[in-house]
Amino acid sequence: xxxxxxxxxxxxxxxxxxxxxxxxxxxxxxxxxxxxxxxxxxxxxxxxxxxxxxxxxxxxxxxxxxxxxxxxxxxxxxxxxxxxxxxxxxxxxxxxxxxxxxxxxxxxxxxxxxxxxxxxxxxxxxxxxxxxxxxxxxxxxxxxxxxxxxxxxxxxxxxxxxxxxxxxxxxxxxxxxxxxxxxxxxxxxxxxxxxxxxxxxxxxxxxxxxxxxxxxxxxxxxxxxxxxxxxxxxxxxxxxxxxxxxxxxx
Amino acid sequence: xxxxxxxxxxxxxxxxxxxxxxxxxxxxxxxxxxxxxxxxxxxxxxxxxxxxxxxxxxxxxxxxxxxxxxxxxxxxxxxxxxxxxxxxxxxxxxxxxxxxxxxxxxxxxxxxxxxxxxxxxxxxxxxxxxxxxxxxxxxxxxxxxxxxxxxxxxxxxxxxxxxxxxxxxxxxxxxxxxxxxxxxxxxxxxxxxxxxxxxxxxxxxxxxxxxxx
Lengths: 250, 213
Prior knowledge:
- Chain A is mainly alpha-helical.
- In chain A, 50% of the residues lie in helices and 9% in strands.
- In chain A, the strands form 2 sheets. Chain A has a 3-stranded antiparallel sheet with strand order 3-5-4, with helices on one face.
- By secondary structure, chain B is α+β, with helices and mostly antiparallel strands.
- Chain B has helices spanning 3-15, 18-28, 35-48, 60-76, 99-106, 116-128, 133-140, 145-153, 176-182, 187-193, 203-212, and strands spanning 33-34, 81-86, 89-94, 131-132, 157-162, 170-174.
- In chain B, the strands form 2 sheets. A 3-stranded antiparallel sheet of chain B has the order 1-3-2.
- In chain B, α6 packs across α8 (145-153).
- Chain B is globular and about 60 Å long.
- Chain B starts with a helix and ends with a helix.
């Protein structure tokens, strides 16, 4: 299954992929030829945790189910170490066997895992057959699309197709309004020239869309950076006013 | 009715035994042919052309028997081809032993098989149907959400309804397409291969457990 042998070339890793925690447990049981109905829980738990540890060291992410099983195994192990309450009668002891549920699960899983072999051999046998015209026999001949084989998913799929193929109802075309920084610079300068000084908030009408507000602000920053205008605040929290620099000079 | 047509009908009447007609129909059909379809065809031609339709009242049983008969004869001669019933419909297909050569002639690769998780999930659905996703998950010990969706996409399983359990989960069953994929006559044929796996077959496990106590 897995081994981490330190050799001269480094680590040689041999990993087997498991379908889930039950698959892994079955492998551990089979490997040591253990009796599935009398699992040495301590030993199995150790080997199981070893595997998880190896995977962790190799940075391989395991499904959460593997961790749940690790917890279950540890719980069973600790329970089996505790003295049973009903030690008076032997029968109780059997019923209290904490492994019972796990064994039941393992046996059940093993049944279907074994059945998988039947399906696999049927499938591989079928893969050797061909239909007149050269179609693979295990492929979809299209002969079994009867009504009874339609499921809700098929109906949903068909419905989605209809929706997809429906012509889109004609709608009016909205042209995006684009603002440019140079345009806003002109506008701000124009306003200042007209009024001499303008309050900061007057540049940003409440109804203006976000895009316009942002572009106006950028234009203002640009003007301040180039020292064409100044932003003045008389006192904390008071209104900021914008004035043009070197008004007199111009 | 013109002379030409009469001539053709004359030939139909003289040429064909039921076996010949059935063999030809199955061979020429683009899809596997069910006994019901064959029967309806025989009935409709005998209504339209009473003189040609000598098989208008052949029973489904007789049709099936005749097809089985051809299948048996085909198996006797080394012809590389079988007449088989798959999911209740008949078709010709090549014999598995010739797969290698047919594949080379078609210049094809071996078709990809189902994955281990798909096979495990299919096995559980096949033997325990109808079954909910959470039941499958409790048997396999891992989530099957992705797997079951892939199987449904391949039309190997389908939703048959909803369970009465809380949350009314979907119940899954196998499809005719599943039988086709595995080359099975019916789901019972699969059960016969391993009868202990049926829903009722959970009992032996309990007994085994008891035997150990």
